[in-house]
Amino acid sequence: MANIQYVKKFLMLLFFGLLCGYFSNAQLSEKHTYFSPGSLWLDTNHEHINAHGGGIFEEDGIYYWYGEHKNKNSLAQVGVRVYSSTDLYNWTNEGVALSVSEDPDSEITIGSVIERPKVIYNEKTQNYVMWFHLELKGQGYAAARTGVATSKSPMGPFTYLKSYRPNAGQWPINFSEDQKLSSASDNKLEWWTPEWTTALKNGLYVRRDFEEGQMSRDMTLFVDDDGSAYHIHSSEENQTLHIAELTDDYLGFTGKWARIQPGGQNEAPAIFKKGATYYMVTSGLTGWAPNPARSFKATSIFGPWESLGNPAKGKHSKVTFHSQSTFILPVISKSDTSYIYMGDRWNPKNHIDGRYIWLPLEINNGKPEIKWQDTWQLQESTPAE
Ligand code: DGJ
């Protein structure tokens, strides 16, 4: 009798287990039909998307999302991952676009830092060109370099070419003759003193790094309507943004560059153009912790850039909804262009668990605005033909 009870219990548990399994799988295999910022975002293989500090490249109605493959810590163990999607909600893991190298002498060896990868297409060479923030293994964030890789397919594999300290031996276009002259006290100033701040704004670190090339940490890319491409990066010990023109093949720097907001401490630049106006969203400088975003606009990419304040509005705007900008994606539909703010909600205790905060970005009264939504959908998801 007791045995029959056990068998009954076992069969019931089995049935219940199978039922739960069926429903959770059914839920997992459902297609996403909306964005849910901050939630786990499962790819078509039911795994949380691993593409942090990312950027998107679109071609023929297919979106490619490139990002840092993170593990528990933030050092590069795998490289840059790429996902594809046609609707921006559902993403297929297409594998590793740029692999770290097993060669200990390679600049992109396992254990280096590879952050914020961005991809653009060069019409002349028919190359897909990836740039990313590179820090050399074992040097923390001291190297402050930018790396470049190319591929003949947006899915990769990308081949690593080289890294730069940009614009060695070139002065910025918005630098006076006086600023080019170094002063004896340049390297003796104590950080955060008023004298240091003045010297910084006057190009202390531009002069220091003139021969070797300027520092380049958080970065993004932008291709203008005429095909000219620009590399925008946090430089001068993260105190000042630089905007630098890339060569025709997008693989190097022309030497034409400008300083933006000297001493403004902008990181995480994300840039887009609406009509004839360039807009930029950045973060402040607080490591992995969120801070109030900033926004700017300009009529020339080299500036002057007018400060427009924090684009995040409402509750939690002071921490940008617990996120840091990485990219602004224009979504071009038949009738309109809308913009998506893409941010990272970092989890420095377990980087792989970092979340994605995608929200609509609108231009209201000439200023970018981002408002929180628990869930949301694109107005019109049909890409333009
Ligand atoms: C903030 C940057 O925006 C991130 O990409 C990363 O470099 C962290 N700093 C490292 O502390």
UniProtKB/TrEMBL annotation:
This protein's name: Beta-glucanase
InterPro entries hit by this protein: Glyco_hydro_43, Glyco_hydro_beta-prop_sf
Keyword Lyase: no
Keyword presence, Hydrolase: yes
CDD domains associated with the record: GH43_CtGH43-like
Keywords: Glycosidase, Hydrolase
Listed Pfam families: Glyco_hydro_43 (PF04616)
Family to which this protein belongs: Belongs to the glycosyl hydrolase 43 family.
SUPFAM superfamilies on file: Arabinanase/levansucrase/invertase (SSF75005)
Organism, scientific name: Leeuwenhoekiella blandensis (strain CECT 7118 / CCUG 51940 / KCTC 22103 / MED217)
Gene Ontology BP, a term: carbohydrate metabolic process
One GO MF term attached to the UniProt entry: hydrolase activity, hydrolyzing O-glycosyl compounds
